[in-house]
Amino acid sequence: MFLVINSQIMQSESREQILNTNLKTILIFIISIAIISLFLFRNFFFQSTYLLKSFGELSVDPEVAFTNNKPTFLEFYAEWCEVCKEMAPQVSAFKDEYEKDINFVFLNVDNQKWGNYIEKFAVNGIPQVNLFDKKGNLISTFVGKQDEIKIRNSINNIEKEEKSNEEIINAEFSTIQENKNHEVSPRSHG
Predict the structure, then answer these.
(1) 173 within 8 A of 143, measured Cβ to Cβ
(2) pLDDT value at position 165?
(3) Which of 18, 45, 105, 111 could lock onto 74 through a cystine, CB 3.0 to 4.6 A?
């Protein structure tokens, strides 16, 4: 009898060990899949942030933009700005669609080297998009979150030579934060 009970206990312990080993293996497999998925699809999961960080690298230099006889789409943004992140996919789509005909300039308000442009265009809230005709005349200014159709219509009307200087402000925008260290950060690209 003792041998039978002892055998049953050993079989039970053996099953528990196998079950624990299987559970650990499954858990490690699931965690591995999650980590690999996050790595492979990081741009999808963090697309807005990724797009916003890449704007500075994709930007046409403002001095070139205002002298190359093409209309210009100028956006002031910051990487910490939630509204900027929200609008980044829309702005990126505009760039993909119109970049052959229009300069796209992205200026990070946290980068001190763009201070003269921030002052010149009275940037108090971001995102701020300024649209210029090919002669450098300001046509439209958009501050805050904007409807795609409004911006698209303004882009399509840039060449109509209508100097309306329209300003459209949405209450949903970020106020520019003062840069306390007054130094250009190597992480602020644009």
Answers:
(1) yes
(2) 57
(3) 105
